[in-house]
Specification:
By secondary structure, the protein is α/β, with parallel strands linked by helices. The protein has helices at 10-14, 45-56, 72-79, 91-100, 121-132, 177-186, 214-220, 241-255; strands at residues 16-21, 39-40, 43-44, 61-66, 83-86, 108-113, 137-143, 148-151, 157-161, 167-169, 173-176, 190-192, 198-200, 227-230. Helix content is 31%, strand content 23%. Bound molecules: cytidine-5'-triphosphate and ligand LQXTBERG.
């Protein structure tokens, strides 16, 4: 399914909130500071990520999860008119912190990794457009380019996997807001207090196999289809130092 527009319609932005998760430590990047603060072409990753989101969704409400005790990322969020909230110990727990801060009027919610700082507006807009057209869970994906093999406990190949049946998953992932709240409640990542207010729960670890938001839908609301839209190579996640070289190159190319 494809929804190719360059910016989301005003009607969908009206009821849409975006949670940008930026509370990670960036261990694999190894800069000794939260990854979202690491500069790319002189600007913090979060600053560029928020600009990318705002390109497609200029009027959407944005919540940014930041590490406990942070002031710098919160200032970047404020400069974009976004609200900063303290995240959790894992990505999933940070998303739950963002959901607990959600306005009750939000009909749709997009969850985006700050680390995917260069997501093209077309991708964000097509996730929002798919929600507007009635989809309840929408994720951008790409085909897998490399040959993929299984591996056994000894580290030997168990054979080639048919990659025509595989997709690499990106963000932003979009959901009907009530659905994403509901699966987070069922997963024990969120709870409601006696007044009905949502609160994120501290956990030692995430439910097994939960690596993104759509996997919560698949586990806790399997009757809801997860719909694909076309992702983009420029939505890659900055994970290791090499990714910073690519990010700089993309920014330079866009500036030309
Ligand atoms: N407790 C966490 C962990 C991750 N994230 C966010 O989730 C996104 C994807 O996570 P990942 O790339 O794994 O980031 P880090 O956890 O920072 O990386 P690492 O595992 O190398 O420490 C990032 O934007 C990151 O800031 C978050 O908000 N809260
Ligand atoms: C959510 C995600 O970006 C989808 O590809 C990814 O699962 C984040 O997890 P990671 O293990 O930290 O790369």
């Amino acid at each position: 399914m494809t929804f190719s527009t360059s910016s989301a319609s005003p009607s969908v932005q009206d009821g849409l909130a975006v949670i940008v998760v930026a509370a990670g430590s960036g261990t694999r990047l190894g800069y000794g500071m939260p990854k979202a603060l690491v500069p790319v072409a002189g600007r913090p990753i979060l600053d560029i990520a928020l600009e990318s989101v705002a390109d497609a969704l200029p009027t959407a409400r944005i919540i940014v999860t930041v590490p406990a005790g942070d002031t710098e990322l919160s200032a970047v969020a404020a400069a974009h008119g976004a609200r900063a909230v303290t995240g959790g110990a894992t990505r999933a727990q940070s998303v739950a912190c963002g959901l607990a801060a959600l306005d009750s009027s939000a009909r749709f919610v997009l969850v985006h990794d700050a680390a995917r700082l260069l997501v093209p507006g077309r991708v964000t807009a097509s996730v929002a457009a798919a929600l507007e057209s009635g989809e309840r869970a929408v994720i951008p994906v790409l085909p897998v380019n490399d040959t993929v093999r299984g591996v056994d406990a000894q580290g030997h190949s168990t054979g080639t996997v048919d990659r025509s049946g595989l997709r690499a998953v990106q963000t932003p992932q979009g959901f009907e807001a009530r659905l994403l709240v509901d699966v987070n409640l069922r997963a024990g990542l969120l709870e409601r207090d006696q007044h009905g207010a949502l609160a994120a729960l501290d956990r030692a670890e995430d439910p097994e196999g939960i690596t993104d938001d759509a996997s919560l839908i698949e586990r806790f609301a399997p009757e809801v289809p997860v719909t694909f839209v076309a992702g983009d190579e420029e939505s890659f996640k900055v994970t290791r130092p090499f990714d910073l070289i690519t990010a700089r190159a993309v920014l330079e190319q866009r500036a030309r």
